[in-house]
Design a protein that fits this description.
This protein has 478 residues and is of the alpha+beta class. Helices cover 53% and strands 17% of the residues. A hairpin with a 2-residue loop joins strand 4 and strand 5. Helix 1 packs antiparallel against helix 2 (73-84) and helix 7 (320-337) runs parallel beside helix 8 (356-372). The longest helix has 56 residues, at 13-68.
């Protein structure tokens, strides 16, 4: 059994429920036992009264006949008492004892004090009296001969056997109630265990998570509520473990990315230190590595800001056409340097809600990626539109594209396909990650496609605002 291994603790849900069930069963047993016994006693008393009244009527008739026949009243009372199973007393009009069927001469001539219900009764009447040790049935009937009152007859019957039977019945009911209480308490303990065990497993799993063991899972068993709680915890634990794994990978990747330019800077610095003459090529390389480090650190700081759950952005209505115009103004010199043509197809009536600065950074990152990985003399095509309440900005380059198995990795921090994203390009592998986080802040998403021999297609999707806002003075045009 399971409960011996559980230390008794009254504050435990398991034992509280078990004790509650036991107390409830005891109270219910007491109420049912008391009601059952009391109902049975009342019915039995009523039956005893009816029998006693019937008996006293026969006794009165027989005793009256014996008096008319001048028979010995004491002998008649003795016989009638044996027949009725009780004691018969003949009380005179003054309630003094004239005849006792038991032959107790000490009662002769003594006045008996009867209960008011019996003393003033004009007809046969019966009462059940509790003497403290036993029950007794007292029944009286008026006695008269030829309409001459001669007092009354009193029949006393001992009901100790009946009381003993009810005492035994009450004991048996209490015994059954006790067994029922024990059984119900055991069932309550089983039920409490089934309810508290998932909570204990969950508590232990939480303690392990707090200790640093993040890969935790608890069985989803029990009631609907505990199953839902276990499922929520499992999802949360999986999410935390995933985030921790991403954090570890991010730190490792960041350390790896920083190590390369730092090693280059160290080698260049040592070479320059050993040479007294100025070396322009080494100085230019030094400056390039410094700029690369600066870009990497800026990107890391930017991602740290985006990862902050308390980051709040100010959303205002933004014209997509103005957003693209501002980004093209930044990208155009770089595209001209590489002799890359820009083809723009945009609608002037697309309105989105967002932070202009963050959206500008995201669009510039995507366009910069396209310029970097499009060969000289290539083409970048940009078009906008609206589909299913989403505004889309699609940037398609004429570069080599990526393989289908690589598409799912795009947007992952520090990920760069070997064929398209060489370190010599100066990229940090964080540009698309930043775009992805910015779009997530705007309830949007970033999608990729790379049809064979058609380059890479990047889609930025952001919820669109109703066209009625176009007339508002709060629309931001970049």
């Amino acid at each position: 059994m399971f409960w011996p291994s559980r230390k008794f603790n009254l504050n435990s849900l398991r034992w509280r429920l078990a004790l509650s069930y036991a107390i409830i069963s005891i109270v219910v047993t007491a109420l049912l036992t008391g009601m059952a016994v009391r109902t049975s006693i009342n019915k039995s008393m009523a039956s005893q009264k009816e029998k006693a009244i019937s008996s006293i009527a026969g006794i009165e008739a027989a005793f009256s006949d014996s008096l008319i026949s001048s028979l010995d009243p004491a002998q008649t009372a003795r016989q009638l008492g044996l027949s009725a199973g009780g004691r018969i007393l003949w009380l005179g009009p003054d309630d003094r004892v004239r005849v006792d069927s038991y032959g107790d001469t000490s009662l002769s001539g003594r006045s008996l004090t009867l209960p008011p219900q019996l003393k003033n009764a004009k007809t046969a009447n019966a009462q059940i009296l509790d003497t403290g040790k036993t029950w007794a049935a007292y029944t009286t009937a008026p006695l008269s001969i030829t309409d001459k009152p001669l007092g009354r007859l009193l029949l006393i019957q001992d009901l100790s056997t009946l009381r003993q039977e009810y005492t035994q019945l009450r004991q048996r009911l209490w015994l059954l109630g006790g067994l029922f209480s024990i059984l119900l308490a055991a069932l309550g303990l089983l039920l409490a265990n089934s309810m508290s065990r998932p909570l204990e497993d969950l508590t232990q799993a939480i303690e392990r998570v707090k200790a640093g063991e993040l890969n935790q899972s608890v069985p989803a068993t029990g009631s609907l509520e505990t199953v839902a709680l276990a499922a929520a915890f499992n999802n949360m634990a999986a999410r935390i473990a995933g985030l921790d794994e991403q954090r570890r990978a991010f730190i490792a990747d960041a350390a790896h990315e920083l190590r390369t330019p730092l090693a280059s800077l160290q080698a260049l610095a040592e070479g320059m230190n050993q040479s007294s003459a100025a070396r322009p090529k080494e100085l230019a390389a030094f400056i390039r590595q410094t700029k690369r480090l600066s870009r990497l650190v800026c990107s890391l700081l930017l991602l740290a800001r985006l990862d902050n759950p308390e980051l709040q952005i100010t959303k205002v209505p933004v014209m997509v056409a103005g957003l693209i115009e501002e980004a093209i103004w930044v990208i155009k010199p770089l595209a001209a340097e590489r002799q890359i043509k820009l083809c723009i197809e945009t609608s002037k009536k697309i309105l989105i809600a967002g932070d202009p600065d963050w959206l500008h950074r995201a669009l510039v990152n995507v366009l910069s990626n396209a310029v970097y990985y499009t060969p000289a003399g290539g083409l970048i095509h940009l078009r906008t539109g609206v589909e299913q309440d989403l505004a889309y900005i699609i940037i398609k380059d004429s570069g080599p594209g990526v393989s289908p198995d690589v598409l799912a990795q795009l947007g992952t921090r520090f990920y760069r396909p070997a064929t398209a994203r060489e370190r010599s390009s100066g990229g940090t592998g964080l540009g698309l990650s930043i775009v992805k986080e910015i779009l997530t802040l705007h309830k949007g998403r970033l999608e990729f496609a790379s049809p064979p021999d058609q380059g890479l297609i990047v889609s930025m999707l952001i919820p669109v605002l109703p066209s009625e806002i176009l007339d508002s003075d709060s629309v931001t045009t970049l």
